[in-house]
Design brief:
Radius of gyration of chain B: 25 Å
CATH architecture of the largest domain in chain A: 3-Layer(aba) Sandwich
Number of strands of chain A: 22
Structural class of chain B: mainly alpha
Distance between the termini of chain B: 48 Å
Strand order of the largest sheet of chain A: 6-7-8-3-9-10
Number of strands of chain B: 2
Largest interface: A-B, 60 and 40 residues
Helix content of chain A: 25-40%
Strand order of the largest sheet of chain B: 1-2
Number of helices of chain B: 18
Oligomer: heterodimer
Helix content of chain B: 55-70%
Shape of chain A: globular
CATH superfamily of the largest domain in chain A: P-loop containing nucleotide triphosphate hydrolases
CATH class of the largest domain in chain A: Alpha Beta
CATH topology of the largest domain in chain A: Rossmann fold
Number of helices of chain A: 18
Order of helices and strands of chain B: HHHHHHHHHEHHHHEHHHHH
Largest sheet of chain A: 6 strands, mixed
Number of domains of chain B: 2
Number of domains of chain A: 3
Strand content of chain A: 15-25%
Shape of chain B: globular
Distance between the termini of chain A: 33 Å
Bound molecules: adenosine-5'-triphosphate, magnesium ion
């Protein structure tokens, strides 16, 4: 399918999110769409998908002008979209989710699950998208959930597929698999619009690249363009893609974790006898494939989960009996991995979100009442400092683009004196410019003497930032490696090899690295 | 380490002050995009139209004229018009102002309609606040009825069983009423915090408990009016009664002042207090609130205590102001109208005041309309229901009046209407 967007303009009030955007996607082309956070990529795709009506401009499909009144309309014209935030129903099975919206029934009016199941199997086979058809979506890792989203679009005969930051939540292996799938789709004649902040992937897979900045197209590029060329085109200034830092100067131990285990109510061991210590002034990275206990471990560190065994001490104080509030009060900053779910209150303004965990302390609150002036002043400063766009403390947090939401969370956690900073996936969904900025802030926080625990599934991030690297696998610390360890070796640890095996370079391919069939390829 | 400048360089451009639209522009925008006030007014217009159809259908002369519509259609229209205007005029005269009263003696008849409207508005506002505050913290309090009954029982008991000096007696009775309602609401909050029991279920069940308790008490000595075999309690002593505001002949009492003060208090709580901040955060996103160190369980208990306390004030207004004695129907349907008022008022204190006044006017005017014109009282209920229905489905109003899709988010009444699972 050939898609052409001509001079699309979309405004939100006085704010122009898309400004006369032209975009041509040829049949069987993978078109990379790059742009800073808030550049208007998602908005443009929502216009294409019929979720928003453009204020000006037209959409042409195979050279015929069309208008879409809603997603149903766009879908029937052959456009499929996988949103930045998934739109699956967790308590439904894979098959049910795929059939949702175009359910087929048996003559008696019952759902024809058998037939739907067959169709799901057929499509997944055709494109090599392996999914367990009868599993509940809630039980699947994100990478597999995403495949379900893609299947859903394909099952409606999408001939143009929009993938909005599909790799933001994927492991390297899952990303590789997605890229294979995208190529297979392209070779089958499907056009793809691929949005990503990871320049390497875009260069690897795109046939053509369009760059947006502040709602307008600033240029197109060939995939041959270098990462730094693309980055400066996006941001409008040179971007430093690697982290500059001095060697760490570790001080006293700030965080001491001893034999901590977390067992869920069903008896599943999520964190298994983990011990480590982090000193002030160093960055301790916990690398690992998503879902290997990092989330539960961090939750235990801030008192959101009570460990079944073991002790955690922060600045020498056992936090076993402390509430989250009291732990944060010691001087702990916490950036949760899921900003929408745990980091922000979407209905609150940016200013309110910026004081979410210290609203009741002076100067923001005293003797039971809020100091709105202080809250607004704080917002003005933070928004400026972290370049949150729009730079408006009154904006609702849910109207911000994903990257800007992340900056709000970071700004909040890094805006008070800290002894320990726990950051989970700090740059998920951030553009290269913001990523550079966040990495610098983390390093600066380290240099101020704060102990930093970095949880990340991005190997590049771990290798760039960490002073010490530990790999988590199935709830255990699989091994600690020095900085400078080759990525491949860490990848093997992440897939379940022991340190010795990894160092020796032998691959013990363990299927359990990702709890889904067909997802266990290693780097 | 090396820094290239401080924050990313482009921040300054973004900081350009956004042009503020002038008042005229804002008004045009409000109408074109349909802000919540415009939507509310349009919903009321629709409701009055639907009500008009009901009046026409229920009016015997119009109906008989319809029988020969094709030979003399004009009859149907004149009679229909007559019925509608008579009905709505009566509604207005009963709730706001009756021009005839200018020719009678004294101020009493002039202020009568307003007095009745405000009299009804007080419990509606208080009840609407109770539901609204709980809703903002993510809880759907269906139990205002039970909480107001408990409030009325406690306030009434203090009012008739003790003898205290005037002001002190009133304060003690009010306090007892607030505590009664707060405890009853707090139990539901505590159950949710401790066991996860859904507040909708538990508050409904506690409504039955409160009603049962009330009916039991009305039959035992010490509560039941001496020498009576009716289900009515002893009368609250004069010292514990809410004073009348417009002289002894008009029923309006201090309840409306309490309601307005409570609304002011709720406004402060929700927008200016740290407690309100955490309640709203828990209501909007409990996971994020917990991650930020707030105590969700405590918040559930606290908000149900507050909500129940406000409901207890409804009971106080009823027993210490309007009725003076407990009966089986002391709640007078205010428990459930409170939900509608909160819905219409979008769970905001200011909106709740307006919604309470409007529904108070409907209650006051409805009585007069039924008495003067014979139009069934159900018409008023239909109008109320249609307003809320239209507001719960703003898309419908937008479609009818061809308004543009709104631009920002903003809490709509739809949110409260959808709030069952919130
Ligand atoms: N419904 C809305 N109301 C008001 N402003 C909005 C709305 N949706 C998006 N915006 C604004 O439009 C701009 C573009 O947002 P969009 O989500 O398209 O960015 P994006 O390029 O996808 O960014 P990211 O990479 O962070 O996902 C942002 O500044 C955002 O705040
Ligand atoms: Mg986006």
């Amino acid at each position: 399918m050939k898609l052409e967007l001509r001079a699309i303009t979309k405004r939100f009030g006085s704010f122009t999110a898309n400004d006369a955007v032209d975009l041509v996607v040829e049949p069987g082309e993978i078109h990379g769409l790059l742009g800073e956070n808030g550049a208007g990529k998602t908005t443009l795709m929502n216009v294409l998908y019929g979720l928003y009506q453009p204020d000006e401009g037209e959409i042409l499909i195979d050279d015929v002008p069309v208008t879409f009144k809603g997603p149903g309309h766009a879908m029937s014209a052959g456009i499929g979209m996988v949103h930045q935030h998934f739109m699956l129903i967790p308590v439904f099975t894979v098959t049910e989710n795929v059939m949702l919206g175009h359910e087929q029934t048996t003559p008696g009016g019952f759902l024809n699950r058998r037939r739907a199941g067959r169709e799901v199997a057929a499509i997944s086979k055709r494109y090599g998208l392996e999914v367990p058809p009868d599993a509940l979506v809630a039980d699947l890792p994100v990478g597999v959930q995403q495949r379900v989203e893609i299947l859903k679009a394909l099952s409606r005969d999408a001939r143009l597929l929009v993938l909005d930051e599909p790799t933001a939540v994927l492991t390297p292996q899952e990303t590789d698999e997605l890229i294979t799938v995208m190529r297979a789709l392209r070779d089958g004649g499907t056009s793809i619009v691929f949005i990503s902040h990871k320049l390497r992937e875009v260069r690897e897979v795109a046939d053509k690249i369009t760059v947006l900045r502040r709602g307008a197209v600033v240029g197109t590029a060939e995939p041959g363009a270098s990462q730094s060329e693309l980055a400066s085109m996006m941001v409008g200034r040179p971007v430093q893609l690697t982290v500059d830092k001095e060697p760490a100067q570790p001080a006293d131990v700030v965080l001491q974790v001893d034999g901590v285990s977390v067992v869920d109510p069903n008896g599943v061991v999520l964190v298994d006898n983990v011990s480590f210590a982090v000193r002030g002034g160093e960055i301790y990275a916990l690398a690992g494939v998503q879902g290997n206990g990092q989330t539960e471990l961090t939750e235990a560190l801030v008192g959101l989960t009570t460990p079944t065994r073991g002790t955690i001490a922060i600045t020498g104080r056992n936090i076993g009996k402390l509430s989250t509030d009291e732990i944060l009060d010691i001087g702990v900053g916490y950036v949760p991995e899921d900003r929408l779910h745990d980091g922000l209150v979407g209905q609150f303004s940016v200013a309110e979100n910026l004081v979410l965990d210290h609203f009741d302390r002076p100067p923001y609150g005293s003797r039971g009442s809020l100091n709105l002036r202080a809250i607004a002043d704080n917002a003005a400063v933070r928004v400026q400092e972290f370049d949150v766009r729009p730079a408006n403390g009154l904006a609702g947090a849910s109207t911000l683009s994903g990257g800007n939401q992340q900056k709000v969370v970071l700004a909040r956690e890094m805006s008070r004196p800290l002894k320990l900073l726990i950051v989970a996936q700090p740059t998920r969904g951030l553009d290269v410019g913001s990523m550079e900025f966040v990495h610098r802030r983390i390093v600066a926080e380290r240099d101020r003497g704060t102990a930093i625990v970095l949880i990340s599934t991005e190997l590049d991030e771990v290798l760039g930032l960490a002073d010490r690297i530990a790999v988590m696998y199935r709830g255990r610390i699989q091994g600690e490696v020095p900085v400078g360890t080759p990525a491949a070796q860490i990848g093997m640890l992440m897939a379940g090899s022991t340190s010795a095996e990894a160092a020796a370079g032998t691959t013990s391919l363990s299927k359990g690295a990702v709890a889904a069939p067909g997802a266990a390829g290693v780097l | 380490m090396t820094y290239q400048g401080t924050a990313p360089a482009s921040a300054a451009e973004e900081m350009l002050p956004e042009a503020k639209p002038g008042p005229a522009r804002r008004l045009v925008d409000a109408i074109r995009y349909g802000n919540s006030v415009v939507l509310t007014l349009l919903a009321m217009l629709c409701a009055l139209l639907v009500g008009a159809i009901m009046i026409v259908i229920a009016d015997p002369p119009t109906r008989s004229a319809m029988g020969y519509f094709f030979s003399s259609p004009w009859d149907t229209f004149t009679r229909g018009w007559h019925a509608i205007s008579a009905g709505y005029v009566a509604l207005f005269e009963g709730s706001v102002f009756n021009p005839d009263s200018l020719y009678s003696n004294g101020h009493t008849p002039i202020f009568g309609p307003i007095s009745n409207t405000l009299l009804n508005a007080a419990p509606l506002i208080l009840g609407g606040l109770a539901v609204g505050v709980a809703f903002r913290a993510g809880l759907f309090n269906i139990g205002v009825q039970g909480q107001l009954i408990m409030g009325a029982i406690c306030a009434g008991y203090v009012g008739f069983a003790f003898r205290l000096p005037p002001l002190l007696h009133l304060l003690a009775a009010l306090l007892a009423g607030v505590i009664g309602g707060a405890v009853w609401g707090g139990i539901a909050g505590w159950l949710k915090a401790r066991t996860g029991a859904h507040e909708v279920i538990s508050t409904i069940m506690m409504n039955y408990l409160a009603l049962g308790l009330l009916n039991y008490l009305l039959g035992i000595s010490g509560f039941q009016a001496p020498g009576s075999n009716q289900a009515i309690s002893r009368s609250v002593h004069g010292t514990a009664r809410l004073p009348h505001l417009l002289g002894p002949n008009l029923s309006l009492h201090l309840g409306i002042v309490i309601a307005l003060l409570a609304a002011l208090g709720c406004w402060w709580l929700l927008t200016r207090s740290t407690l309100g901040f955490s309640l709203r955060a828990v209501g909007a996103n409990p996971s994020a609130a917990r991650t930020a160190g707030m105590k969700i369980e405590r918040s559930y208990v606290v908000v149900m205590l507050i909500s129940g306390g406000l409901a207890g004030l409804v009971g106080c207004s009823q027993i210490l102001g309007t009725n003076h004695a407990l009966t089986g129907d002391i709640d007078a349907g205010f428990g459930f109208d409170a939900i509608t008022v909160a819905l219409l008022g979008q769970a905001s204190p200011r909106g709740t005041i307006f919604a309470g006044l409007l529904f108070g006017a409907f209650r006051a005017g409805g009585v007069v309309m039924v008495a003067n014109t014979g139009i069934p009282a159900d018409v008023v209920l239909v109008i109320e229901a249609v307003i809320v229905l239209f507001l719960a489905a703003p898309a419908l109003i937008r479609a009818i009046f061809r308004l543009r899709e709104s631009r920002g988010g903003g809490v709509g009444v739809g949110q409260l209407a959808k709030g069952w699972n919130a």
